[in-house]
Write a structure and sequence with these properties.
The protein is mainly alpha-helical. The chain has one domain. It has helices at 10-15, 18-34, 39-43, 46-49, 51-66, 70-91, 97-118, 124-140, 150-163, 169-182, 184-197, 200-206, 214-225, 230-237, 243-247. The two termini are 20 Å apart.
Length: 252
């Protein structure tokens, strides 16, 4: 059976650990709030009503693709495309190509940043692997203007960060919803992760601050894995509503 992502790929390793996926989630939460096309997510009403659930949905679709056989992965991608086409038809307008690319670029960037924050630096070959997986997703969706290599992506990613982000009333509202759904302590931890892994422009626009106290905490957390305490910590720190989904994130 042919898989969409090779079983030995670093991409499966990155997306097979709940810790890394939750960091990807945190980074995406920051950038979603700043994206100039975030009004599309407000149009359906799903994002402000349940921002964590909406982000988990995005992450879960990515995981379904990464751990699926080729045919199943292609069906999942086609389903994503169909969902967006239905939203476009309902609103009578098209989601800009750059907005689609932004989501792919976020998944590439935060996959790399999250793994490096929690585990180790990736090689250029491994970073190219991450890029190639999401390039194939975008290509299947029929997206235009995609970069064709990891070096090209680095240039386009910077252009997107400079041109497609803004701190708007949507940003403020979404962060209010994050706080409401997470509670004070978890919301504070979310922002600490965001300080650690978001690009400088994202952090600056959100006024997150320059320093995170998480690096020594991460070291202690990694140590707790040896004593099987990490699962207890995750269950304590994360909303009960999402515990089942969070447990399911660990594939390795």
């Amino acid at each position: 059976m042919q898989h969409f992502v090779d079983k030995h790929s670093i991409v499966r390793h990155i997306w097979g650990k709940a810790d890394t996926v939750l960091f990807i989630f945190a980074g995406s939460a920051a950038e979603f709030a700043l994206n100039k096309a975030v009004d599309w997510l407000y149009y359906t009403g799903k994002l402000p009503a349940d921002p964590l659930g909406r982000l988990f949905s995005t992450v879960e679709y990515a995981r379904r693709i990464i751990f699926a056989d080729l045919d199943s992965a292609n069906r999942a991608i086609d389903q994503i495309t169909a969902i967006h086409k239905n939203v476009e038809a309902s609103r009578g307008a098209q989601i800009p190509d750059w907005a689609y690319r932004d989501v792919l670029f976020m998944l590439i960037d935060y996959s790399i940043r999250s793994f490096e924050a929690l585990e180790r630096e990736l090689t250029d070959f491994e970073k190219s692997e991450v890029f190639n997986v999401f390039y194939r997703v975008g290509n299947r969706m029929g997206l235009k203007g995609l970069p064709h290599s990891y070096p090209e992506w680095i240039i386009m990613r910077d252009e997107h960060l400079q041109n497609n982000l803004i701190n708007s009333h949507f940003t403020a509202n979404l962060y209010q919803q994050y706080r409401k759904h997470l509670g004070g302590i978890r919301y504070h931890l979310l922002k600490q992760v965001q300080i650690l892994i978001t690009p400088k422009r994202v952090s600056r626009l959100l006024r997150l601050g320059r320093f995170s106290y998480l690096p020594p905490v991460i070291w202690l957390y990694k140590l707790s894995r040896n004593f099987k305490l990490d699962k207890i910590l995750k269950e304590t720190l994360l909303p009960a509503k999402y515990k089942v989904q969070i447990k399911a994130l660990d594939n390795i």
